[in-house]
From TrEMBL:
Organism encoding this protein: Eleusine coracana subsp. coracana
Chain's role: Plays an important role in the elongation step of protein synthesis.
Name this protein carries in UniProt: 60S acidic ribosomal protein P3
GO molecular function terms noted in the UniProt entry: structural constituent of ribosome
Low complexity: bias regions: 86-96
Xref: InterPro entries: Ribosomal_P1/P2 (IPR027534), RPP3 (IPR044252)
An example Gene Ontology CC term for this record: ribosome
Protein family according to the UniProt entry: Belongs to the eukaryotic ribosomal protein P1/P2 family.
Alphabetic keyword roster: Ribonucleoprotein, Ribosomal protein
Record region (Disordered): 83-120
Length: 120
């Protein structure tokens, strides 16, 4: 599992990103395009499956973007602005998948025995 943290800045309408402790860099016109490029670069650097990412604005012109490659929970990409990816990166109990509880299917009440009719 690899964790890649990027510092992103907007300068004159162009978004740039530089890895906090590494050599990956990217630039794009929009934050969304920048995120896509950074996820692709991080995925290429780490061949594990499953990617999670978190983009958090710090100011109108700066943000922090974190990509977790090899995250527990499948191969779907999730882009969020919260601490969810940070909690998964911390490991421990947060990384364990919760056990699935079996619930009994609730029986739907029938509209037949309401005691009145809509057309009476």
């Amino acid at each position: 599992m690899g964790v890649y943290t990027f510092v992103c800045r907007n300068n004159g309408g162009e978004w740039t990103a530089k890895q906090h402790s590494g050599e990956i860099e990217a630039s794009a016109d929009t934050p969304y395009e920048l995120q896509r490029q950074l996820v692709a670069a991080a995925s290429a650097a780490d061949s594990a499956s499953g990617v999670q990412s978190s983009f958090s604005m710090v100011s109108p012109n700066s943000a922090v973007f974190q990509v977790i490659v090899g995250a527990v929970g499948g191969g779907a990409m999730m882009v969020s602005g919260g601490a969810g990816a940070g909690a998964a990166a911390s490991g421990g109990a947060a990384a364990e998948a919760p056990k699935e509880e079996k619930k009994e299917e609730e029986k739907e009440e029938s509209d037949d025995d309401m005691g009145f009719s809509l057309f009476d």
